[in-house]
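From the shared-data thread, chain only:
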Amino acid sequence: MSDFELSVAEFRALYERVKHMSRRGPADRRGALNNIAPAQVTAAAGDVRCGRTVSLAAPVDSEVAPDNPDPAVHEMTLPEVTAVPAAGLSFAMDRVAMNIHGNADSHIDALCHVIFDGTLYNGIDARAVTAAGATELSIEVASDGIAGRGLLLDIPRARRVPWLEPGDHVTADDLITAEEAQEVRIQPGDLLFVRVGHRSRRRALGPWDSATARAGLHPAALELLAERRIAVLGSDGNNDTAPSTAEGVDFPVHVLAIHAMGLHLLDWLQFDDLVAVCEELGRWSFLCVIAPLRLRAGTGSPVNPIAIF
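Structure, as tokens:
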């Protein structure tokens, strides 16, 4: 077993440590969103200087690809404009059908998304997720939106490479090195975004089966994030490395973040536009607003986070 792989016992010990560090009362349903105080939101709003906005989401893709075998379906529901009478009122209308979770579209995971040892976050019985949806911990927990200080850590930039290769992992040392290189620090209540360069690699080399090979965070890095008490974690991958670095657990970061720490995860974001603005303005933090759809029983939602500078 390499230095980067965790045995069953090592993963269980890590799970218990980050769970203890993130412990809240038995009635809690908001998880790490509790780490955002109103003063932190107003402080982040006070840092808005030029009014520029940047999307952190990738365009919804309706084309079949190796990493998107069941893509979103976008179809028009009214005749083409050429068939509409020239006079009077008419409307262009369409519909979208898509999987919330997958390996292509930007989305946010609710706290009911991960079932581990028969429970959801905070020990809630997994049977709270029914055929009709989640009766506990659905994405409705974030129905009023999530706002606060967004912080981007660009790991390929710190390593001086265009992207991390599939199977590579972001360690706690990588996060600290990126902090130092960018002259920032992860703070309590942050909406933390970690770039691995997935979208840049996909655009340059084409799509691949990212379900089996992708860059992500090493599970042990979650201990640093638990210490810093972040509120949200997002990546341009799905946060987990593939193949997994934890014996017997395919998505260890999802288990640690969502199930143990109560972190809402954002997967498959797009940071290339954000990086360009951060470099231009010489700053890596910004006001960030995340507005999931109000899916009352949903295990997550498509999402388009907005950075405001």
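The helical segments are 8-21, 38-46, 155-159, 172-182, 198-205, 221-228, 252-260, 272-281.
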